[in-house]
Amino acid sequence: MSDRFFRRKEDELKARSQKRLPPGQALTNKFPVLHYGPVPAFNPATWDFRIWGEVESPLRLSWEEFNQLPRTRLVMDIHCVTRWSKLDTAWEGVSLRDLVERGILKPLPTARFVFQHAEYGFTANLPLEVCLQENFLLATHYDGQPLSPEHGYPLRGIIGAIPRRDDLNVPYFWKGAKWLRGLEFMSQDRLGFWEQSGYHNDADVWKEQRYA
User: Fold this and answer.
1) In whole angstroms, what is the distance from residue 120 CA to residue 112 CA?
2) Model confidence over 152-195: pLDDT tens digits?
3) Residue 46 contacts by C-beta under 8 Å, 6 or more apart in sequence?
4) Are 77 and 85 in contact (CB under 8 A)?
5) What angle do CA 183, 126, 163 make, to 5 degrees?
6) Strand ranges (DSSP E) for the chain?
7) 77 and 160 in contact (C-beta within 8 Å)?
8) Engineering a disulfide at 116: which of 18, 98, 177, 184 sits with its beta carbon 3.0 to 4.6 angstroms away?
9) 78 - beta bridge partners?
């Protein structure tokens, strides 16, 4: 145990020297499970994913149809508001930016924000410009395997920091919703679940914007 502790501390010091660890964060080699409410059941025969609002053509996709969308792999550092950070996490899923560039999804000029709708009415909000960055993904896999139920199976939004890319906005990890069921494109912002409870609306990890 002591060897693991000292190795983690060495890794943490290295991450700080490389400016990969935001203020107030500590490095973890585990993947803590944090969410509000129970883990929902998943039925692939009835599950669907919707995109609506300020878009040219709303979409409703079955699980089979969703898995036919173009796939993206991404390696990112993730930073939780509860002060843990995990580096070099590997994800696979669907890039919103890719869907727009391929013309599969066409936001209207009035679209400026995206509201993530998840099971049990959970929500998370982000500016559209952030959702169209390379570091936002609709993820189905983590570390080469389908997401575990506790980590959002079958689909979750994720956002993190791509190493050596300081041109991207990086919010805390809660800004990606677990058990995602839809995206609502909006002309005006709306506070999500945790933002209504006092968490910061922008949630920039480098500015340590934890609470409003």
Assistant:
1) 25
2) 999 999 999 999 999 999 999 999 999 999 999 999 999 999 99
3) none
4) yes
5) 110
6) 26-27, 48-53, 59-62, 72-79, 84-94, 113-118, 123-127, 136-142, 145-146, 156-159, 180-186
7) yes
8) 177
9) 86
User: Is there a contact between 102 and 70 (Cβ–Cβ < 8 Å)?
Assistant: yes
**Cα atoms in the Cβ-side hemisphere of radius 13 Å centred on 64:** 2
Fold of 43-196: Sulfite Oxidase; Chain A, domain 2 (3.90.420)
Predicted confidence (pLDDT) per residue in 8-53, tens digit: 778 888 888 999 999 999 999 888 887 777 899 999 999 999 999 9
The one-letter code for the residue type at 5 is F
CA distance 87 to 174: 16
Which residues are CB-neighbours of 106 under 8 A, at least 6 positions away? 55, 56, 57, 100
Q: Which phi and psi (to 5°) does residue 43 adopt?
A: -120, 105
